[in-house]
């Protein structure tokens, strides 16, 4: 049985080449989530004008930065102290290369139901999401407390995740692919249900909706060439 994250707790899921990991909950919800999106413009100088024209070149990856706090001091600070790395390694290891995929895995950081600010989507239509999928661009681990024997007991993880979208995801977005219309998708050899959900819904956690619609008993056993029905989400908004 797949483990579940504690209610109201933010968590990460790694999308390994062989399948998704169990949720990796943070020990404490972060106090800040920082999202940054940049675009690149070229300046076109026209003689006689007071300012150059701005010509769009390309968008840059959106970036999520978050700092996470971990503490095992409550388990004791003496000879039997528990290293905080027993918690931080679960996330720190996600920046390492996966042998079967030849790259670190994409990850999704979830701040779903119960997380502070969960109603953001109801306030700002352009922020209709409760997770962020990307690749870990950097991770910095800072130890702030040690036991008398030198065991690290507290740590901060500064995590930077760069937006991850396949070419198919981006082409569909340019074609105004909408989650409130039913779609058909032919699986490629690299597809997984989470990536199909990310492509059509911008929410990888919706993979179960696709699995149920297609009667997939084992979502990890997918055959290239299989045509999937991608059901609509009423009004483009997932029901709560």
From TrEMBL:
Note the Gene3D superfamilies from the entry: LysM domain
Which residues does UniProt call coiled coil?
none
Outline the extent of the LysM domain. Answer: 183-230
Q: What Pfam family is a match for this entry?
A: LysM
Would you tell me the protein name for this molecule?
LysM domain-containing protein
